[in-house]
Amino acid sequence: MNYQESREYIDKITREIPSVLGLDHMRELMKRLGNPQDDLKYVHIAGTNGKGSVIAFLYSVLSGAGYHIGRYVSPTLYSYRGRMEVSGSRISREDFAAYITQVSDVIAAMTKDGYPHPTAFEIETAVAFLFFKKENCDLVLLEVGMGGNLDATNIIKNTLLAVLVSISMDHMSFLGNTLAQIAEKKAGIIKDGCRVVTARQKPEAMQVIERISREHGAKCTIADASEAEVLKESCLGQTIRYRGEEYEIPLAGVYQKENAVVALNALKVLDELGFSTAAEQKKEGLRTVNWNGRFTVICKKPLFVVDGAHNPAAADMMAASIEHYFKGKRIIYIMGVFADKDYRSVIQKTVHFADRILTIQTPDNIRALPAGELAKTVSEYNPNVQAMDTIKDAVEEAFSLAGEQDVIIAFGSLSFIGEMTDIVENL
């Protein structure tokens, strides 16, 4: 396959093979590929909100310190290949196509032998492991796709550090109906004898994490964001003081203080595990981190913010940031969500800030909720809503409605934010 054919192959699998949790298919697939994942070391990150930000902080610091670091994240906003990177370089089109060809040949043999067809995420994860092994990474930062214990990424054995960001109610149909049940699944990434860093969780989740850590003989460090102080802030970034040191962070959002504290604790543990970074390297890495789409300003007049508030916990965080930065401002929303998310809760937590709401449907995604259906639900809470035909139409309408002092906020699914950013930059 060439690159275009390999992408079409993945898109076809996405449409035809539903997401599943379980490691049986992944074990068979990786065994037939020679188990490349067993030759690598990992920081494995699970939780509900903040995984990508914590990985971005760690990636920036460790790569800046000279380590050859692999990063696997999803979804990505601006480049599909950006989900698999090594020290700042995305997987090449040629390598991706070659690995997809290799994996597809193995899958053909698997299905001929009676095994079920792997999902798109399992295939992408397999490609990532092949890529990271070829690159001979010192360490791989690996983001869980969903849950933890049965996620395709959890086939790994050499977890040096398991990181658990904030855990809240999400993917309940897969993970459970209580916070304790969800925490049990997410803490399934903890391996015997590894180290654990967790954000300070709600009590029912914290109890589960501490119990599972004990059961695996895994020393657990709690990263408590209340120990950090915000010295200055704006919607363009913030400076925090933590344990006597000051850190500049070019990411807005009230939740980024917690993510930075989790990352700093993870770096302290990695110091002890042989991946040491100097104090100035930590500061420089946080100062230069790049992680777009999380309360990110993409235009200043009028102010245009994009944010991946796609579940109730993320909606709480976005609402807190709106209160913090834009109290009293006239706000226009552009909103698009996936049908399988708890979008009604997202609506309830956010719509009261908006003067006008424009709904869109995320293009080319079978999970996307139609704009009309979303507008109908929004209208139950705020009547000033209008369904738009395209993202471009929504952006143009938002700019026509907004004065220079107003704020446009686009949020919901992360999958449309890259396209929206391109549209805004080219207007």
Automatic annotation (TrEMBL):
Broad class of enzyme this protein falls into: ligase
Cited Gene3D superfamilies: Mur ligase, C-terminal domain, Mur-like, catalytic domain
Domain Mur ligase central: residue ranges: 45-266
Keywords recorded for this protein, A-Z: ATP-binding, Ligase, Magnesium, Metal-binding, Nucleotide-binding
Entry's EC annotation: 6.3.2.17
Metal-binding in keyword set: yes
GO molecular function, one term: tetrahydrofolylpolyglutamate synthase activity
A Pfam entry, by short name: Mur_ligase_C
Domain Mur ligase C-terminal intervals: 293-413
Keyword Plastid: no
Family: Belongs to the folylpolyglutamate synthase family.
Name of the featured protein: tetrahydrofolate synthase
Organism, as annotated: Blautia wexlerae
